[in-house]
Amino acid sequence: MKFSHALILAGSLAFLACDDTTSADNSSDFDCTVSGGVKVVSPKGGEEFKIGDKITVVYGSDVQGSGYRFVFKTSEDDIGKDLLDGSAGPETPDGKKCYEQEVVLSKDIVKATSTAIIRVIPYENTKKGANSGTFKVKE
């Protein structure tokens, strides 16, 4: 009987670990509190990444809807390119929690540049999106 309970618990934990959008475990490291939009706290700016790197975008939001776009941009004016094939993120964020989304700086999307940002954009209210800090991308 005890063994079956252990299996159920292990299965439940494995299922939860598969979610690609999670509340940040180290939320004490970031203040993701936001009202009326999105707040991107990581990348915070000044980092240097290589093409092909996986990075974790940490953000907070209170914009309700069907999720978010994660867009790589080389400047504020750049239209950018989507880093994910579809929507990601919570549908009912509370404006208090930090959320994480892993993205890959794929060579098909990203180019080496001294100025790069990731913009997190709610699908239902694109004007409420926010940018990460500025970082560099190297070959």
Low-confidence stretches: 3-25
Give helix % range: 10-25%
Radius of gyration, whole Å: 17 Å
What fold name goes in the CATH topology slot? Immunoglobulin-like
Shape: globular
How many helices does DSSP assign?
A: 1
CATH class: Mainly Beta
Molecular structure report:
The structure is a single chain. This protein is mostly beta strands. It has a single domain (about 20-139), classed as Macroglobulin (MG2) domain (Immunoglobulin-like, Sandwich). It is built from 1 helix and 10 strands; from the N terminus they run H-E-E-E-E-E-E-E-E-E-E. It has one helix at about 1-15; strands spanning about 20-25, 40, 50, 55-60, 70-75, 80, 100-105, 115-120, 130, 135-139. The strands form 2 sheets. Strands 3, 5, 6, 8, 9 and 10 form a 6-stranded mixed β-sheet that branches. Strands 1-7-4-2 form a 4-stranded antiparallel β-sheet, with no helix packed on it. The N and C termini lie far apart (about 55 Å). About 25% of the residues are buried. Residues about 5-25 have low confidence and may be disordered.
